[in-house]
Specification:
single chain, mainly alpha
């Protein structure tokens, strides 16, 4: 006895509906998924800022930065970078900036003698205020600037019109191209990492000789003298972060950044490291 199989499709109309649904449902699903994936802004409708953000290069290479020619600093700039360390507060007997009574005996000795003292050093003041990179004319401009603030006009060497030198252009990637993110670093010589501490030490020495030596070279106003282990020991004991903070923000007679606000935090920390290393 044969058992008949039943089916939900009873009429030709039902069969047609089932066939249509079999095609329509998958096509609708595919269309919805496609619309979801491609719904972001593209082509002519894209936001220009978003397009630029997507195609910008990973990095750029700068071969040189323009810098002012040597010897072109004004007297005010030299004062701000070097002289103010002592002359702004009158440290170690330095005539205080703008104090007519304090500058009277300096001015009385004459322009030539005062310039010579500033260039070669006098008593507690080191040669060129401790900044050996300054030219003679820059030092003289600084002296002329300081005496001008107490009503005296001395000859200020003019700043020569230096020929402008074009800095080497930065390497620019081709339109649409991206710089390789990792291959440049991989190509560095094996000794590059080892050279980093030496470079930091050189930077610290440079900052010390241009700024810190003014007080730390001779131990002026209670500053621990360079290389004096006994004077540095209690300070080193407080920890490097504390020494950094003191150098950056000042303490007691020492102004922030040793009075040279043009210094970066990194350079000042390098100078602290240099002095600490010399005093251990």
């Amino acid at each position: 006895m044969t058992e008949e199989h039943s089916t939900p499709i009873k009429t030709p109309k039902q069969l047609i509906v089932v066939v249509l649904l079999a095609f329509a449902v998958p096509i609708t699903i595919v269309g919805l998924v496609s619309q979801l994936v491609t719904s972001g802004e593209r082509g002519e409708q894209s936001n220009p800022d978003q397009v630029l953000a997507r195609i910008q290069p990973i990095g750029t290479v700068v071969l040189a930065e323009p810098s002012a020619p040597k010897g072109s600093l004004t007297g005010e700039q030299v004062f701000g970078q070097t002289c103010k360390t002592c002359h702004e507060t009158g440290i170690a007997g330095a005539p205080k900036f703008g104090d007519k009574a304090a500058w009277a005996h300096v001015i009385a000795q004459g322009e030539k003698t005062t310039f010579e003292h500033a260039l070669k050093g006098f008593k507690a003041m080191p040669a060129k205020g401790g900044n050996s990179e300054l030219t003679d004319d820059e030092v003289k401009r600084a002296v002329a600037f300081m005496v001008s603030k107490v009503g005296t006009n001395w000859t200020s060497p003019p700043i020569a019109a230096a020929a402008t030198t074009a800095a080497a252009p930065a390497a620019t990637p081709a339109p649409g191209a991206q710089a390789a993110p990792a291959t440049v670093a991989a190509a560095a010589p094996a000794g590059a990492a080892a050279a980093a501490p030496a470079a930091s030490g050189d930077a610290g020495k440079k900052v010390y000789e241009s700024t810190c030596v003014v007080c730390h070279g001779a131990g002026i106003a209670g500053a621990p003298k360079f290389g004096d282990k006994a004077a540095w020991a209690p300070r080193i004991k407080t920890g490097i972060p504390t020494l950094y903070d003191t150098a950056l923000h000042g303490k007691g007679a020492m102004p922030p950044k040793g009075g040279n606000m043009a210094l970066s935090d990194a350079d000042l920390k390098a100078a602290v490291d240099y002095m600490v290393a010399a005093s251990k």
